[in-house]
Amino acid sequence: MSLKIPSPKVKAKWLYHHIEDENLIIFNATIPKVTDKENLSLKESYKIKGAIFFDIKNTFSDKEAAFPNTILSPEKFQDKAQEIGVNNNSCIIVYDEIGIYSSARVWWMFQLMGFTNIAVLDGGFPAWKSKEYPVEQKHLINLSKGDFKSFYQPDKIKFTKDVLENIKNKGSIVVDARSKGRFYATEPEPRNDIRGGHIPGSVSLPYSEILDHQYLKSNEDLKSIYQDLNTLNKPIIFSCGSGITASVLALGAEIAGIKKYAVYDGSWTEWGSTNHLPIEK
């Protein structure tokens, strides 16, 4: 019987008990934080036993796009997912070495492509290590081609034209995952040539505020946070620097029972570097 995720996040104990299941795939999706100048998040030489590296930057982003972390087309995503062994009946658990950071981006990518049997490892690699569960040195794994098919869900993604239109019609609430300092332009953007500030009418919810250290906050706390933020119960558009931590907020929304949400793929890197677009500070 094929393994199914119990929720969009799983604990290390759950993964440990299912690590030998036939259709399980474990992805290590670690990328350095854009604010981490020394790439401290890439110092780990071990991984969860059997884990496959999911390369967000070089394989699962459009390298020809103008902005970082731009999503692939459904066709290209399908090809790349097949190359790393993903099948339609796979059960995917994705983690990163920080805790909860880039793993949520991979979770959202698969949601966008119509695949929902995927969960984020709550607490990431630090949680796994703290339990002394099996690890191994990082190495390349020979993979068999999978039969994964994309079923693109366009309601899960927004583009600049959608966000501009929303400034006029206010049909959705735009929620920004960056720090308060970046949102209000009291601290500089980590990327060069990008203006400070935020999308007009957007609200601030730093992704760190839905975390308890490297873990997601409880389901009840998440529900309370999102309800307080969005009292009118509008659809939500999540934004951040380049789509990574917006996906953390999307994961939190899913766990909180919110279904009408999307990620602005260009996020502030696109908005803040496009001079004719309006900003607030």
Structure description:
The chain is of the alpha/beta class and 281 residues long. It contains nine helices and 14 strands. The chain has a five-stranded parallel β-sheet. A five-stranded parallel β-sheet has the order 8-14-13-9-10. Helix 3 packs across helix 8. The longest helix has 11 residues. The mean pLDDT is 95.
Please outline the helices and strands.
Layout: E1 9-10, H1 12-18, E2 24-28, E3 46-48, E4 52-53, H2 74-83, E5 91-95, H3 103-112, E6 118-121, H4 124-130, E7 135-137, E8 157-158, H5 160-169, E9 173-176, H6 180-183, E10 203-204, E11 211-212, E12 215-216, H7 219-229, E13 236-239, H8 245-255, E14 261-264, H9 267-272
Parallel strand pairs: 1-6, 2-4, 2-5, 5-6, 8-14, 9-10, 9-13, 13-14
Antiparallel strand pairs: 3-7, 11-12
Helix pairs in contact: 3-8
What is the H-and-E element order?
Answer: EHEEEHEHEHEEHEHEEEHEHEH
The coarse silhouette is globular
End-to-end Cα distance, whole Å, is: 53 Å
Biggest sheet strand order reads 1-6-5-2-4
* Integer-rounded radius of gyration: 18 Å
Mean pLDDT: 95
Q: Look at the helices and sheets and give the structural class.
A: alpha/beta
Query: How much helical structure, as a percent, in the residues?
Result: 25-40%
Gist of the model:
With 281 residues, the chain is of the alpha/beta class. It contains 9 helices and 14 strands.
